[in-house]
Design brief:
This protein is mostly helical. The protein folds into three domains: 90 residues; 97 residues, no CATH class; 87 residues, no CATH class. It is 68% helix and 0% strand. It is built from 18 helices and no strands. The radius of gyration is 20 Å and the shape is globular. The relative contact order is 0.11. The mean pLDDT is 82.
Length: 293
């Protein structure tokens, strides 16, 4: 039996908890922290590194790393969560960037040396995104820390965000020059191509549905489709390994989406949560029937 069977099969009971209904991700995080070993839990947190980019950028703008402002950083920065770094780790990292991943440290040193200003952070943070390519090719000293699901997801998510940015700008006939974070061939095509499909029709995979939806529908419908695309990608990656570690990571990302929807649109968040629970119960029932057939 999978070592993660108990964790995943316990999620329906967790979902019924009133605390989970109000704050799904923090409750889920507390639960899995007790069930996963330290390495697996750390890998799960790596899936949320893109939020750390925003948190570090906002903190630098607020003067983070200067002793006079660190005490006020909690009030000045609205920390995006889930994230790899909590506020205490973030403060320590801003004070001593060498305690962070090298791509975060390099970006912080670079920003401070040149005093680059945000929100023009797409160009600046290409340093981080380019490091994703170095990670996938094994050219980075941190490659061994980012193998498998967390890295695959981060690359997918950056491509997804680049595509939605390009489509949103096209919809209003605005130039998106400098808005695409160029870190691989896919993003390069998005930044340079003027064709309807950016010359990437064979590369879109589950993202293909966005081309039509984002060009016609309103913001809410488009955002729902982006979430659906993300969940479809997660389902494809997990496949039939419904009680694997990758499945745990996928649930973490889906529940983080639910948390966001509950804040933005409570009714949509509730529907997403109900859908997630029904699918989970079906999976558990299917696996149980096969084991005892």
């Amino acid at each position: 039996m999978s070592p993660y069977y108990y964790l995943i099969s316990s999620l329906p009971e967790l979902v019924r908890d009133d605390a989970f209904s109000a704050h799904p991700y923090p409750v889920f995080d507390d639960f899995v922290r007790e069930e996963l070993d330290e390495k697996d839990y750390t890998d799960m947190k790596r899936c949320f590194l893109l939020n750390d980019i925003s948190n570090i950028a906002d903190s630098l703008e607020a003067g983070g790393g200067n002793s006079q402002s660190d005490d006020d950083l909690d009030d000045m920065v609205n920390l995006k969560t889930p994230s790899f770094l909590d506020m205490a780790d973030l403060k320590q990292g801003l004070e001593d960037p060498d305690t962070l991943f090298s791509f975060f440290a390099d970006a912080i040193f670079d920003w401070r040396a040149e005093q680059r200003q945000f929100p023009h952070k797409t160009v600046h943070w290409e340093l981080f995104y380019r490091s994703l390519v170095a990670l996938t090719t094994g050219e980075s000293k941190e490659s061994r820390q980012f193998i498998g699901f967390p890295l695959d997801y981060l690359v997918f998510e950056v491509r997804l965000r680049n595509l939605t940015t390009a489509l949103a700008y096209r919809k209003t006939s605005r130039s998106y020059e400098g808005e695409i974070v160029v870190f691989d061939d896919f993003s390069q095509m998005l930044a340079e191509s003027s064709t309807p499909d950016f010359g990437l029709s064979r590369e879109f995979g589950v993202m293909e549905t966005l081309i039509e939806v984002l060009s016609k529908e309103d913001v809410l419908v488009a955002e729902k489709q982006v979430t659906a695309v993300r969940w479809n990608w997660l389902d494809e990656v997990v496949g039939y390994r419904l009680f694997s570690l990758d499945a745990v990571f996928a649930y973490a990302l889906k529940i983080a989406d639910v948390q966001r929807w509950l804040i933005l649109k409570p009714e949509e968040g509730r529907r997403s949560l109900d859908s997630l629970l029904k699918r989970l119960q079906m999976n558990i029932k299917s696996i149980t029937q096969k084991e005892y057939s």
